[in-house]
Amino acid sequence: AEPDEVAWIDSDIRVVAGDYFEATGIEVLRGRSPSEVDLAGPPVAWLNQRGSETIFPETDPLDQFVYVAGTTRRVVGVVEDTPYDTRGQVSRKTYMPHEQFNNDRNWALIQTVKTRSQGTEVLEELRSALDALDPALVLYRPRPLSSLLAAARAQERFATLLMTVFAALALILAAVGSYGVMAGNVTRQRREIGIRLALGAEPSRVRSMVLGRAFRLSVAGAALGLAVAWLGSRWIESLLFQVEATDPVVFLGGGLLLVLLGLLSGWLPARTATRVQPAETLDA
Questions:
Q1: What's the CA gap between 233 and 241, in Å, rounded?
Q2: Is residue 119 helix, strand or coil?
Q3: With contact defined as beta carbons under 8 Å apart, do 263 and 179 qualify?
Q4: What are phi and psi of 246, to 5 degrees?
Q5: The dihedral of CA 245, 249, 255, 257: what is its sign?
Q6: SS3 assignment, position 31
Q7: What mean pLDDT do residues 17-40 have?
Q8: Closest residue by Cα to residue 111 from 10, 24, 11, 12
Q9: How far, CA to CA in Å, does 100 sit from each of 64, 152, 183, 219?
Q10: Which of 39, 207, 234, 283 is the most buried (most CB within 10 A)?
Q11: 4-20 pLDDT tens trace
């Protein structure tokens, strides 16, 4: 069909060369890889899964034709979807070989190279390889993939850092508050504790009594906190990638940590109270 007679579907375009799919770890799910295609023949293209399902929802995309970048191309393969941002978003992509596209100088080309070398020798190797590929191309602003990923993840990292700081402050406030509540509770019970000790109660048993109360309060508080956290987890789900917002391991670990803080908050005041002489406690 002529370009004016078909529906237009937007797609990101990737111009690739050499073993691009192998170097980037993108699997060719169906069809042929670039090394199996005669690039000197008619124009060809590869679609990702999202693109093939959208353009050819009820038809086998292999050997179908797409009109892209001013040229009609035969689809020779379908590759797996890859996210285009740190949140895992996937878009439609069309891959075209550089050998069939190198006459168009209006496109910015990004070369992705996998190498074991490091340092300045890598740049020389890249310049030599790029010159062999196309002498008219210029190596501009070469950067390692790690720096590109760091720049792309800067906003998420900053948000994560802020959330970590706020979570740490909340944990500290929870510990201080628990200690204050339990210390005040034990202080009010100093006379009762003194009577128990004067009647021959073992200090360890008195401490167990205080810890039991602290444990019950901590479990109740942790259960309430986990319920609120589960309700609020939907709010941060958009910031996560390949991580569940309601990870049971994280929730269980957080609940256990709060319970341990509660026990520690009760143990310290109880230990102080039971070390006081009964006579001093009764006179207080």
A1: 14
A2: coil
A3: no
A4: -115, 55
A5: negative
A6: strand
A7: 87
A8: 24
A9: 18, 31, 77, 67
A10: 207
A11: 555 678 888 888 887 88
Question: Measured between alpha carbons, how far is 54 from 70 in angstroms, rounded to an integer?
Answer: 20
In the chain, the amino acid numbered 156 is: E
Residue-wise DSSP of 167-215: HHHHHHHHHHHHHHHHHHHHHHTHHHHHHHHHTT--HHHHHHHHHHHHH
One DSSP character per residue, 89-116 reads: ----EEEEEGGGTTT--SS--------S
Give the model's pLDDT for residue 198. 77
pTM: 0.52
Q: Could you give the count of Cα atoms lying within 13 Å of 8 in the half-sphere of its Cβ? A: 7
Residue 121, number of CB atoms within 10 A of its CB: 10
Return the structure tokens found at 73.
């191309």
Cα 53 to the center of its chain, rounded Å: 27
3-state secondary structure of 28: strand
